[in-house]
Amino acid sequence: MWVVLAFISALCLGFYDISKKVALRDNSVVDVLTASILISSGILVIPLLLSRIMPELMSGTLFYVPTLDLRGHLLTILKSAIVLSSWICAYVALKHLPISIVSPWQATRPMWTLIGALIIFGERLNSWQWIGVIMAIGTIFVFSFFNHPAGHGKELLHAPDTRYYVALALAILIGACSGLYDKYIMRLYDHNAVQVYYTLYQAVMMVVFCYIHHLRHHTRPALRAGSDLGALIAIPLISIFLVISDNVYMLALQDPESMIAVVSTIRRGGTVIGFGYGLLFLREKDPWKKVLCMLGILTGLVCLAVGSM
Question: Alpha-carbon distance 167 to 216, whole Å?
Fold first, then answer.
């Protein structure tokens, strides 16, 4: 069952990426992230309040949110800080480094999660799972490495500051640690409780970061919906898809037989949805290259599914 949940999470994550792409068309990353996290908090606070007001009615349902002890709250706050730190580092790196450098580096993130899973949790993959992981991660890396924008060579004429490379490396390593930390905390606490409180704590942190960001750049938070209906509903869709994706992802990790190396790779396979969107609706260049990439990732995901059933 955990494999099915991982695929559902990947599917939602793919639509989350599309919604984010549409929302970012006329808006800044910080404003979109802040707004989407606040909406996610608004969604998740409903089952939290119902679980406290009517515990008898909510108990036993899929939406019941148990209480956390002090240790649980501290671990959840740490999870929020880890995720937000990864996002901030990635944002800084993406802003100052060429995309031709950022994309291949980010494509190595599942590899680091895999290494951590093998060392820390002692996970052992069978032959089918190894083939699937290598196929999926390898295809994503190769595509990211060769999918450089036109004129990318000129981007490297002026070498970026070393600290931006450090920010990129930290974003990747912290992101990999986040997946491993999720596996750890899911062994201790209910997935609904972790998701709800993690999102609420993250909202507080993101609002503070957004305020500091705009204060530093002498700007004000502003979101523009755009002229089309898609842009109007994009930000709420970011929240909806992320809430569903995180919920089933954490539920998958609660299964004692689940493997974070497999789950994280399957979730990364959600990029297939973004590739398909780019081909069908954005008419992006090099369609056959993207089709081959999608086939490679899908083949890897099929191998993972076969080896995990």
Answer: 19
DSSP letter (8 states) at residue 160: P
C-alpha–C-alpha distance, residues 168 and 166, integer Å: 5
| Structure token pair of residue 131 | 């083939």
Q: Is the dihedral of CA 229, 232, 236, 237 positive or negative?
A: positive
* pLDDT tens column, 74-86: 999 999 999 888 8
Distance CA 64, CA 58 (A): 5
Q: Do the Cβ atoms of 214 and 221 come closer than 8 Å?
A: yes
**Dist. CA 266–CA 11, nearest whole Å:** 10
pTM for this model (two decimals): 0.84
Q: Looking at the predicted structure, is the pLDDT value of residue 152 above 60?
A: no
Spacing of C-alpha 8 from chain mean position: 14
C-alpha triplet 14, 148, 302: angle, nearest 5°: 40
Sequence-ordered list of residues with C-beta below 8 angstroms from that of 149, at least 6 positions apart, any chain: 99, 100
Q: How far does CA 241 lie from the centroid of its chain?
A: 11
Q: How many CB atoms lie within 10 A of CB 288?
A: 8
Residue type, 95: K
> Token pair 């004129």 is at which residue?
151
Tokens of 108: 């190595």
CA distance 230 to 235: 9
Q: Residue 134 carries which side chain, given as an amino acid letter?
A: I
Round to the nearest angstrom and report the end-to-end CA distance of the chain: 8
